[in-house]
Write a structure and sequence with these properties.
The chain is α+β, with helices and mostly antiparallel strands. It has 2 domains: 92 residues, no CATH class; 61 residues, Alpha-Beta Plaits. Helices cover 27% and strands 32% of the residues. The strands form 2 sheets. Strands 1, 2, 3, 4, 5, 6 and 7 form a 7-stranded antiparallel beta sheet that branches. It has a 4-stranded antiparallel beta sheet with strand order 9-10-8-11, covered by helices on one side. A hairpin with a 2-residue loop joins strand 1 and strand 2. The longest helix is centred in the first third of the chain and has 20 residues. It is elongated and about 50 Å long. The termini are far apart.
Length: 203
């Protein structure tokens, strides 16, 4: 077979040359390593699981949601960051470098605009937004509203037939601490921190 003809045919079919594929893989691997490098070494944050995936809070990364008509640079400027702090934009969220101390708060205001904590997928290095919601499985006859009131969190939804309840951690509260307190409740079978890792790209 004439390999030159094969190469031309692959190009016409839209198949990328191997060198381009290798470059894409190398760039993706580099981004994974950079995201993993942002994972915290701060004691107390630790690892956690969500929807069967292994995550770690990234203390050096925050996310801000794009407003209607917003641009990434404008969003960064509004929270006191610069374009050089940009990591990536996915869906409606802009991920940027921001060193933060103290608890991993459900939201942290920057110049009056809320920013959200970020978690790193330990296996893939992908970044996910932590919106401050918790998913719990409750024991039979347990009342999610009572649990929420006693734990100082907000009940969003309870499905008694499935034994599941969804809670929101108040703004400024530490998410890992709230999740641990909920999981330790004798009326709760399990509690997880929710992570949004996959996003619909804007049209």
């Amino acid at each position: 077979m004439n390999f030159r003809i094969l190469a031309v045919a692959l190009g016409l079919a839209g198949v990328e040359p191997l060198s381009a594929c290798a470059q894409d893989k190398a760039a993706a691997k580099q981004r994974v390593e950079e995201n993993r490098a942002s994972a915290p070494s701060t004691p107390g944050l630790g690892d956690f699981r969500s929807s069967g995936r292994h995550y770690q809070f990234a203390s050096g990364i925050r996310a801000v949601a794009l407003a209607d008509g917003d641009t990434g640079d404008r969003a960064l400027t509004s929270v006191g960051a610069s374009p050089s702090d940009l990591i990536e934009t996915r869906g409606k969220y802009v991920f940027f470098r921001k060193q933060a101390k103290g608890p991993m708060a459900a939201q942290r205001s920057a110049n009056g605009r809320p920013t959200l904590p970020v978690a790193v997928n330990v296996r893939t290095g992908g970044l996910g937004v932590v919106p401050g919601t918790l998913t719990a499985r409750l024991k039979p006859a347990s009342d999610g509203r009572t649990i929420a009131a006693e734990r100082g969190i907000e009940l969003l939804l309870e499905t008694s037939h499935l034994g599941a309840a969804f809670f929101r951690v108040p703004v400024g509260r530490d998410i890992p601490a709230a999740a641990a307190a909920l999981a330790s409740d004798p009326r709760v079978l399990s509690a997880e921190i929710d992570v949004q890792e996959y996003f619909a790209e804007p049209q």
